[in-house]
Design brief:
Blueprint (H helix, E strand, L loop, with lengths): L1 E6 L3 H18 L3 E6 L2 H9 L6 E4 L8 H11 L4 E6 L5 H4 L4 E6 L3 H22 L1 E5 L4 E5 L3 E7 L2 E6 L3 E5 L3 H8 L4 E5 L2 E4 L3 E5 L2 E4 L4 E3 L2 H16 L3
Parallel strand pairs: 1-2, 1-3, 3-4, 4-5
Antiparallel strand pairs: 6-7, 8-9, 8-12, 9-10, 11-12, 13-14, 14-15
Helix pairs in contact: 2-3
């Protein structure tokens, strides 16, 4: 699941862009969290609060902050996040090469060029997801764990225990909150103070139990279970 932001001060074009992205992802069965912003300041505030996105589709000329200025904020506070500029103006193309821009698409060429830009974006995101890792490093061991291999993590006294695909387990002497911050991934969900879930490994929720990959079943309080359901419905159910 990837988080994608679209920012354009033209409401009509913003809605058009949103519709095209949703249709693209629906056809390819891609799950994303898609958020749209008419105000570039509002998006900037989200980024500065360390609530950034995996990808940004930005207009360039906007009131308050331009798309170029947003790119600088993304670099300062996130350090990553792919950018596609979707604009009416050709003159910024050279300058855009100096920031982390994946594609530069003119609005009047959107019909032909935007699908190819999305192809490139999701290809890069898929490759970067495969490369995301969590590192356990202490005096006794150095272990690199791929995010995709983490099913869930639970607290065991002063340790965080990683339950991995293939019945593997690893221990890190850290609090769950420290682990959660280091993971820094939209796929990871803090169920309660004792469990972190990898949402990509959630298979179903039934009879108050969370069934995970490899047959693991987890329980929590009804409030936490309902919170997870609401999160999944909000971020997956009504999205693509």
């Amino acid at each position: 699941m990837y988080r994608v932001a679209v920012c354009d001060d033209n409401r009509e074009f913003l809605e058009l862009t949103e519709a095209k992205i949703r249709w693209y992802c629906l056809e390819r069965q891609l799950k994303i969290v898609l958020e749209c912003f008419e105000d570039s300041d509002t998006l900037a505030e989200r980024i500065e609060e360390r609530k950034g996105f995996d990808a940004y589709i930005l207009d360039i000329e906007m009131p308050n902050l331009s798309g170029m200025e947003l790119a600088e904020i993304i670099e300062q506070y996130s350090g990553d996040g792919y950018i596609i500029y979707l604009t009416s103006y050709e003159q910024y193309a050279v300058k855009a090469c100096n920031v982390n821009v994946l594609n530069y698409v003119l609005k009047d060429q959107m019909e032909n060029e935007f699908p190819a830009a999305l192809n490139r974006l999701f290809d890069r995101l898929d490759r970067s997801r495969d490369e995301k890792t969590y590192i356990i490093c202490n005096k006794r061991k150095y272990i690199k764990i791929a995010h995709r291999d983490i099913i869930y993590i639970y607290k065991d006294q002063k340790n965080a225990v990683f339950v991995l695909t293939g019945a593997g387990k690893e221990w890190d002497r850290s609090t769950l909150q420290e682990v959660y911050q280091k993971l820094d991934s939209a796929d990871m969900y803090m169920l309660d103070r004792g469990i972190i879930l990898n949402l990509s490994h959630v298979r179903k929720i039934v009879d108050g139990k969370i069934v995970m990959t490899d047959g693991y079943e987890l329980t929590s309080s009804p409030n936490h279970i309902n919170g997870l359901k609401e999160y999944l419905i909000t971020h997956l159910g009504d999205l693509v």
